[in-house]
Design a protein that fits this description.
Blueprint lengths: L1 H12 L2 E7 L5 E7 L4 H12 L7 E6 L5 E3 L6 H5 L5 E7 L12 H16 L7 H16 L23 H13 L6 H12 L10 E5 L4 E7 L2 E6 L2 E7 L3 E7 L2 E8 L3 E8 L3 H19 L9 E2 L9 E2 L6 H9 L33 H4 L6 H7 L57 H13 L16 H17 L4 H39 L5 H7 L2 H31 L1
Parallel strand pairs: 1-5
Antiparallel strand pairs: 1-2, 3-4, 3-5, 6-7, 6-12, 7-8, 8-9, 10-11, 11-12, 13-14
Helix pairs in contact: 4-7, 5-6, 5-7
Amino acid sequence: MLSRWMSGSSRNLDRDYSCTVRLLDDSEYSCTIQKDAKGQYLFDLLCHHLNLLEKDYFGIRFVDPDKQRHWLEFTKSIVKQMRSQPPFTMCFRVKFYPTDPAALKEEITRYLVFLQIKRDLYHGRLLCKTSDAALLAAYILQAEIGDYDPGKHPEGYSSKFQFFPKHSEKLERKIAEIHRMELSGQTPATSELNFLKKAQTLETYGVDPHPCKDVSGNAAFLAFTPFGFVVLQGNKRVHFIKWNEVAKMKFEGKTFYLYVSQKEEKKIVLTYFAPTPEACKHLWKCGIENQAFYKLEKSSQVRTVSSSNLFFKGSRFRYSGRVAKEVMESSAKIKREPPEIHRSGLVPSRSCPSITHGPRLSSVPRTRRRAVHISIMEGLESLRDSAHSTPVRSSSHGDAFVPHSRANRLSESSERVAVISDEIYSPSDSVLPTPVAEHSLELMLLSRQVNGAPCSIEEEKESEANTPMMAEAEELGGELRALCQGLGGTGGAQAEQVNKFVLSVLRLLLVTVGLLFVLLLLLIILTESDLDIAFFRDIRQTPEFEQFHYQYFCPLRRWFACKIRSVLSLLTDT
């Protein structure tokens, strides 16, 4: 019986776990991992499978049983991070967008980034005006079907491809015109390169907004970019804080704090409230990683960061990868024959059907094409379900932040209707906080949409982890509708702050008592025990300890012994 139990335990420890990773072209990579396998092992397997050397821009994302998204930490056990039953389902995605994707060394890396941005375009994460959208879609068309051929491409052929959540017939004709007249002769690699060059100039290149509430209860979206921290709100301008102005980030429960040091020694603390403590911790970790990757010169400068000012409280996290400058220097040293690239071609895609031949979604009526505008916050609200976590790219290569587009946005509403407008949203790059003066009517309409309308649910399969797609979509939809209806008033937040302060004081008292107890225990061992350890012996032989022992400790011990004898005698007499 004992041997059978031991053999069963041994098999349990050596158990293999099935793991499936969805790649950027919607293919799947399956493997088995052991219980103690770390994230780096799986990531190296994927990079070897993809023949990828410039791998620091990529990561593996998963969803826990509570529907919270995470990036897989490479230094920790995969099984312990997943917190769910096997088989495990994860996604290989771009984690840190390259500052200049066209400057990547190898074509295979550019192709993978191209696939990611193409997904962003379809799922409403990359927002742009009509002319930019038509050009990007034409580049995709050229990369996938090649030059225009009248024999193969009849009138309206571009309508068989779905580049965006929804688009009009006018936009389809514009896409076909650009593809037919301007892109002839471009190879797939050249079209992809031109696509990257255009995409990096857009203001929402790589945006992954985290939904929050500010101290007044207004909806806000926080995002991290290669150049700093961005705040977006429905009735305020977009603000940009450079990484060298970000002094510290921390969180407590659902509250996120950003400490900003600006010119003239002006210090600002921004406070936001996330929907859950887990979402707030994820926001904090994303900020720490992005700041380390884009700001530091060397990975040796990375330090362990605590989420609290007190050493015994809060979470501790350390970015474990290389920084952007080291990645660029390493890429410049790559010398090998360019690996063969197997492009997806016309294979139907599950979550990004830009290459799916089928009936296109109905377009917005002509009478509404010019009247309806998709605001930036509506588009960002739809990104809550995009399961994407990557930094932002400014259209400028300098330090200044170039304004975002206001109404020229692609997004997915609850009915998956989107219109692209040529109107430009131009917030300034001013410091915090500046009220929005222009287009107030549009922004007030937007506020009603964010607070009242249900959020969209992206149909990307990467958001499902170990659960059926439709069931998870319903759960996510309910969660997001609750988020859009409001995260609670500020009165509860104030009470929560008081409770946190009381808990902090109690923790401090407990730690102080614990330290005193440990010191007392060590003192008793030094003075009363006969342990002949070199460390104790050296302490006992010091003049200071001998003086303390004979002048203070011995009299105190005799006093305690006398008191104890007196108490015992009283007890025996009674």
